[in-house]
Structure formats: C-alpha cells, structure tokens
C-alpha cells in the first residue's frame, strides 16, 4: 500500500472513532453545501451530493443537519458562500502536496496555510508545479475482504485497478465510473469501508527520520484546519513508522 493510501486508512479509522467531533461535521456540511450549489439539491441526480450525504451519514450526522446544508447550497436557507480552491505545495524532503480548500475568505486562508507549511519546512508552489504528479481516481477500500472476490467483481464492473496491502483491498476507478462501481459492489452485499474520488500520486518520495516526522505533523495540522477539505501527498513512509507517528 502506498504511503498516502496507508495514511488515508489511518485517518479514516480516527474519523470513525471520533465522528461526532464538530470539526468533522463542519467539513462535511461545507461539502454538502457546495455540492448542492453546483449540482442541485436532488441527491439522486447529483453524484457529488450523494457522496457527501453518504459521508455525513457515515459520521452519524442527523438528517436535519443534512437537509439544512442542502437548503443552504440551493439558496433556500441563505448562508455563507464558500469558494473552492486547490493549493499546490512542497513538504519536507520535496514531497508534493495538493491541499483542497473550501473558504469564505481566500486571503485569510492563504495566509494561514502558508504559515502552517513554513512551520513544518514546507512552502507553497506555483500552480501546476505538482498537480501533474497526481491523477484523479475513485477509490473504494474494503477491509478484511477476499482479494480474489473483490478482484473478480471489480473486473466485471469495469474498475481500473485493484491493489491489496495489509488487511485492505483498494479498487480504483475512473471518476465517471465511481458511483456505478460503488453501487455494483453494494448490490452484491459488499459495502466499502471508505469510498471517495481522490488525487492519487503517480510517484512517491521515500521519507525517514526527521523528514518523516515533520511531514506527518504537517499533514495533521493541515487536515485539522477548518478550511481544508482534503490533503494529498506523494510520500512513502514505512507502515510501522507511520502508525507510530500518527498515534
């Protein structure tokens, strides 16, 4: 399993254990609001909104909160207008980072993200400097599942790739096939432990020692920022070391 996928697995477990934390809900509400604004409030006809609502339910968010977020997005309930941004950056050891943002104040967020990066030996990069190292893909993660079974179904559903690592099996799809593949697995009684469209790195940078420690601290602080929705990076850190640093 690549470093970033391992990191994602660790973060998902933490989120599941602490799903009622207000910060988690705040980020999901932003995603629901923007998804409804961009694609409309019909969950059945808006794949991005459907994915955000699934995430909300997985975090035990009440239906009333979900409904209010959708209404804010469609303009029925007023509210703050969020802007979507993606910052590119370099982290310790030259790791490439993409930071997806939703903010109501571009200048404030840019200043705060720059400060976080500099504190952990990172820096903002020019647009396009690292984006070419990533590919947008749908990723469905199955924990404790049979690799052979998952692979057979994935092939039948037209998935792009299957990779196993540790106790997890990851299925990769093209973004436009993501919802159909996810629905196909669920129709067969196999619900992924996590499913999302992500930015997957095509290369990785091996980190050890101080650089590895600094990178994990940077990733944690970025992901804890209220305006940061997702952070993707092409690091490769030994699984045991990553577990220890993320504890």
Could you explain how this protein is built, in words?
The protein has 247 residues and is of the alpha+beta class. The chain contains nine helices and ten strands. It has three domains: 3-74, Arc Repressor Mutant, subunit A (Orthogonal Bundle), CATH 1.10.10; 83-131 and 203-246, 2-Layer Sandwich (Alpha-Beta Plaits); 133-201, Alpha-Beta Plaits, CATH 3.30.70. 47% of the residues lie in helices and 23% in strands. The strands form three sheets. Strands 3-1-2-9 form a four-stranded antiparallel β-sheet. Strands 5-6-4-7 form a four-stranded antiparallel β-sheet, with helices on one face. A two-stranded parallel sheet has the order 8-10. A hairpin with a 2-residue loop joins strand 5 (161-165) and strand 6 (168-173).
Annotate the secondary structure layout:
Layout: H1 3-17, H2 22-39, H3 47-58, H4 63-74, E1 83-90, E2 96-103, H5 106-119, E3 123-124, E4 134-143, H6 147-157, E5 161-165, E6 168-173, H7 178-187, E7 194-201, E8 205-206, H8 209-224, E9 228-233, E10 235-236, H9 239-246
Parallel strand pairs: 8-10
Antiparallel strand pairs: 1-2, 1-3, 2-9, 4-6, 4-7, 5-6
Quickly describe the structure.
Helices cover 47% and strands 23% of the residues.
Q: What general form does the structure show?
A: globular
Q: Which second-level CATH architecture of the largest domain applies?
A: 2-Layer Sandwich
Q: Over the alpha carbons, how many angstroms does the gyration radius reach?
A: 18 Å
Quickly count the helices: 9
List the uncertain runs: none
| Physical arrangement of strands within the biggest beta sheet | 3-1-2-9
The CATH class label of the largest domain is Alpha Beta
Beta strands, count: 10
Distance between the termini: 19 Å
Percent of residues in helical segments? 40-55%
Strand content: 15-25%
- Overall pLDDT: 89
